[in-house]
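Section handout 9: paired folding examples.
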Amino acid sequence: MLLASCAREAAVREVPASRPAAKPIPPANASSTASRAPDTANQATDSVIGDADDESIPPMEDSIAFSCTPRSLGPRDTLTLQFETPHGGELMVLTPGDVFFSFVYPQGDNRAQKYSIVPSEEFKTMSKLKVPADIRLPPLVYGKDTIPEAVFGRPGEYKLQMGDKMESDHTGPPYICKVLFTP
């Protein structure tokens, strides 16, 4: 079995005589892979330990850090969101049709993104936000992302997500609360 460290050196352990002898890896190539198949007899499978690239952390639901009331929302209701402060600077909702809407997001260079209901920096310190059920925002759908439409437009479960860098793969776990919309 060949063992290599993260340093510029590599070490070779003795292997049984039945296997071909391993050669030391030169320091310049310490990150190269060996040409023979690794000995996996004493290793756990990926399904047990997970992939090294899988850095996802499950979202945090129903916490005191982020909550929403009422849990059952009607067309004339107001959704009240409560947060511990400080918190993330973005707030999104996923509809039953798997469409995202951004309630709050940082203003970038794109002036078409002018629909944040409060500035992101101000949102980070808010402990409460009230959103009417008839709010209209553009969906995060290419070609429709400048045309406001009803966010709560169809019956079903809506997942509100609060965090930072929500559209990125490299973000912490979002805080989530769920609301059932019934027109």
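Moving on to protein 2 of 2.
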Amino acid sequence: MTHDEFLVVDRADFAVLDAKGQTLYRGRRGERKSVPLNTDASGTAIQTFELPAADFQKIRERAVSLVVDYWLTVRAVVAQHKMRATGDELRSAEIGICRSDADAGASIVRCRQIGRAPNCYTSTLYAPDGRHNPEVRNCGSDYRPFIPSPMNIISFAGMEMPIRDSYGVAHYDVDGSQIQDSYIVMKVYETGEHFQRRVASRLQPE
């Protein structure tokens, strides 16, 4: 994987096994859509698999390993664009005509184009000195070819990048005081390879 790629989990089935390799419980992660395979700073994937408390109590003394079957998709960058955080316009074959604006709470990008909107794109708000807020990601889980409606051939895309938390809990490196001099980096991703992987690990005793 390169720095401009990430993995998406389309489906994850798991099984809890005993010491003889017999299945004690079988389940599936709860998401009904594809989700990014998030990792920590060291690149280790972090996921939670849930099972009913009653079932867990029945098997906890015999459970020794977890096997996960993943259905995965690669997302790869096909275009990257830069625009001012407010009052700018971008024209791109990948995402159409985009305009930036800002209010007290967020820097906003709205795009429209004839045909299919990008299925996956990200935006990051940068200060002039390179400091930036967390990346905002918008990715769908429908990989089917685009079939335009005869009554509506224009697609829309957009993103809001927070610069202020009205509750005062979150604090952003790039806030409203710097918005006039800040800029946005947008990345457009396309769907790459689909593949399966199996991961097996020992369960740690409590």
